[in-house]
Amino acid sequence: MWQQALQALLKKMGIEFWLPLPLVGLGFWLGGQWITHQALSRPQPLPQPLAIRSQQQATLTLDILSMEARIRRDHTRIEIFTTSPTLRRLEYELPERDPQQIARRLAQELGIPLEQVGGLIRYRFDD
Question: How far is Cα 13 from Cα 109, in angstroms, rounded to an integer?
Fold first, then answer.
C-alpha cells in the first residue's frame, strides 16, 4: 500500500526521470576523462622533424620627426622619434663618434637618404 503511494508520488513529481540524471552525468564525465587521458598521453610521432627553412624580415616604414644623438667618450646613443602611434621611439647605440660617420651609418640602417638624416639629427656631446 505505501509502495503504491510512493510510486504515485514519484510519478507525480517526475523523480523517476530526475533521479538517474546525476549518475548519467557522472558516467559521461568519467568516460570523457578516460578518453582524454588516453588520447593525450599517447606520443604522436612527427612525420618530419621541424626545421626553419627561411627567415623573414619585417620592413617598417615610419615617418621620422627628429633624431637626437648623444656622443659620449666610447659610444653614441641615438634616439629617433616617429609619428607612429605604436612605435614612438627607436634607440640605436653605435661605436662611432664622428658625426659624419654617425649620419652615414644611420642612413644605411634606416634606408633613407643621407641628406634626410642630416636635416633631422641633432648632436649633443656628453662627457
Answer: 80
Ordered DSSP codes for 29-57: HHHHHHHHHHHHHS----SS---------
User: Model pTM?
Assistant: 0.52
Residue 33 to residue 17: CA distance in whole angstroms: 25
Per residue in 49-75, pLDDT tens? Answer: 666 677 777 666 778 899 999 999 899
| Burial group, residue 31, by CB count within 10 angstroms (0-12, 13-18, 19+) | exposed
Burial status of residue 15 (CB atoms within 10 A of its CB: 0-12, 13-18, 19 or more): exposed
Give how far the C-alpha of residue 28 lies from the chain's centroid of Cα atoms, to the nearest Å.
Answer: 37
Strands 76-82 and 89-94: antiparallel
Which residues have CB under 8 Å from 103's CB, separation 6+?
114, 117, 118, 121
Pairing mode, strands 121-125 and 64-71: parallel
Give the sign of the dihedral formed by CA 10, CA 12, CA 16, CA 18. negative
| Residue 117 burial (C-beta neighbours within 10 Å; 0-12, 13-18, 19+) | buried
